[in-house]
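Hey team,

Filing this mostly as a record. A colleague (T.K.) asked me to run one chain through the structure pipeline before their review meeting, and I want the input and output archived in the tracker in case anyone asks later how it was produced. No errors, nothing strange. Just documentation.

Input sequence:
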Amino acid sequence: MPSLTDLPEKIQGRIEVAPNGCWLWIGSRTALGYGQIELVDGGKRKAHLAHRLVYSLLVGDPGENLHHHAHDDGCPKHCVRPEHLTPLTIAEHATLHATKEQCIHGHDLADAYVRPDGTGRICRRCRADREKERYARMKNAAGRAA
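Output structure:
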């Protein structure tokens, strides 16, 4: 089993072990919540997804087929523990998500909004919450500008 101590110190310093066993990335994150790190590669700075980098260093190159698959409902997207990642094809990953009954916040997905291109489902309650937050931010920003 891969160990956290097998990683370079720069990467170890950005990981915190949670009580549930997740290795949580405490460095920067993408807009979607995945951990990310910039490394110099061939003289150029390049952003890497943290879970892919950690998996590559401890297990081996997964190619394009590595997706975060929560080992339980409490495993967040910024978990980088290799045992919590599963090499899946895009089709396998889509099938896995199509069978989920709840979103990550525990809301029922029975009436989820299906994207017009058929690429996924969106929890209606989470979407409404995000829109309320966005509206409040816009209203607040407009009030400051006036």
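Quick notes for T.K.: The longest strand covers residues 36-41. The chain has a mean pLDDT of 84.
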